[in-house]
């Protein structure tokens, strides 16, 4: 680890892997890449698959990683905090926290050790005491967060101007157009635990009614329903399965509608102007779903447990018949996420370190 006093250090603690997915890692890579060459970057990653995380970093991160530390999924919170505090203090660094187990007790320990840090939040329902709190959701408002923080010490970075997506999406957004016709639908629920959402959607879609549509199904090779999903596609020529895609940005840019969960994928879809039909698979996604609907970028189909044949197919039929609504959603999506969030967040961090 660098001890050069002329260089500054950024320490990133996040979760990534088969059970966590790679959304946290993707956005943290996009953020730290925005820092100038006089910063050293150190990752502390909780994972269940070190090799897959290493390969992801190698293929997505263009700069040098100064240190990469893995911690097990069952490491005690006290041991983890001891490692983080020791690492950040020895480097005189700034900490970025991007995982769901950083509760208030966890944060108080960081504060007690005089750590300066940015905390990604996705719930809007717990007390927070970081120096910077970031939630890029269109549903993240000051009214929700003001009661949760000490506003004398915490700065809130809320809303889609702080929605971080990878550079691949920002580069390709220059080539996209507002969608005004429904021909190609992308279906994806990420690489983590998707609660059977992909298989359920495929099973419910009325292929007789929508035989002229093309469905692009993006799944992980770890999806427990992969064989069943492939079996459905084998008898339906308009359904194409793509396993472990490395070009989600291109597939989104080439699609007319996304059936996705309102997590990281929704920010990526918005950045390329892709209208969304949202299905929530985790409680923390509800704030996003409401926000995307509020700004007119999406239709909320509800929780995965509540999705049925009528809800899904009537939505698709409506968008085929009312293409003006599809176009409005596309324009609203594109306008919401401009790709400049990493620079905005970098400047906020630099102002306090």
Largest β-sheet summary: 7 strands, parallel
Q: How many individual helices?
A: 14
N-to-C SSE string, H for helix and E for strand: EHEHEHEHEEHEHEHEHEHEHEHEHHH
Spatial strand arrangement across the major sheet: 3-2-1-4-5-6-7
Mean pLDDT: 94
SSE-based structural type: alpha/beta
Relative strand content: 15-25%
Distance between the termini: 19 Å
Uncertain spans, ≥5 residues at pLDDT below 50? none
Number of strands: 13
- Tell the overall outline: globular
State the helicity in percent bands: 25-40%
Radius of gyration: 20 Å
Secondary-structure blueprint of this entry?
Layout: E1 8-15, H1 23-32, E2 39-46, H2 50-60, E3 67-71, H3 77-91, E4 94-98, H4 104-112, E5 117-120, E6 132-135, H5 142-145, E7 155-158, H6 167-172, E8 184-188, H7 197-204, E9 214-219, H8 226-234, E10 239-243, H9 248-253, E11 257-260, H10 264-271, E12 276-280, H11 286-294, E13 298-303, H12 309-321, H13 323-336, H14 341-350
Parallel strand pairs: 1-2, 1-4, 2-3, 4-5, 5-6, 6-7, 8-9, 8-11, 9-10, 11-12, 12-13
């Amino acid at each position: 680890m660098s001890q050069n006093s002329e260089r500054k250090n950024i320490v990133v603690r996040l979760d990534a892997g088969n059970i966590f997915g790679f959304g946290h890692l993707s956005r943290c890579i996009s953020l730290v890449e925005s820092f100038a060459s006089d910063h050293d970057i150190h990752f502390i990653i909780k994972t269940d698959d070190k090799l897959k995380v290493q390969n992801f970093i190698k293929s997505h991160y263009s700069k040098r990683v100064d240190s990469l530390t893995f911690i097990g999924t069952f490491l005690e919170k006290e041991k983890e905090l001891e490692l983080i505090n020791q690492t950040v203090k020895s480097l005189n660094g700034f900490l970025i926290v991007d995982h769901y187990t950083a509760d208030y007790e966890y944060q108080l320990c960081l504060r007690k050790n005089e750590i300066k840090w940015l905390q990604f939040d996705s719930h809007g329902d717990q007390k927070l005491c970081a120096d910077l709190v970031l939630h890029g959701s269109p549903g993240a408002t000051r009214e929700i967060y003001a009661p949760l923080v000490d506003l004398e010490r915490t700065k809130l970075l809320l809303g889609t101007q702080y929605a971080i997506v990878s550079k691949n999406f920002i580069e390709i957004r220059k080539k996209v157009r507002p969608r005004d016709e429904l021909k190609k639908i992308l279906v994806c629920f990420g690489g983590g635990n998707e609660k059977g959402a992909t298989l359920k959607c495929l099973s419910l879609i009325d292929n007789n009614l929508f035989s002229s549509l093309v469905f692009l199904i993006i799944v992980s090779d770890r999806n427990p329903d992969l064989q069943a999903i492939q079996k459905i596609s084998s008898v339906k020529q308009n359904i194409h399965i793509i396993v472990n895609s490395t070009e989600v940005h291109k597939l989104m840019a080439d699609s007319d509608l996304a059936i996705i969960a309102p997590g990281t994928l929704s920010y990526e879809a918005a950045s390329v102007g892709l209208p969304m039909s949202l299905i929530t698979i985790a409680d923390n996604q509800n704030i996003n779903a409401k926000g995307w609907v509020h700004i007119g970028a999406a239709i909320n189909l509800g929780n995965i447990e509540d999705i049925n044949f009528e809800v899904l197919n009537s939505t698709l039929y409506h968008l085929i018949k009312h293409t003006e609504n599809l176009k409005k959603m596309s324009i609203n999506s594109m306008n919401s996420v401009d790709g400049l969030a990493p620079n905005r967040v970098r400047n906020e961090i630099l102002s306090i370190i």
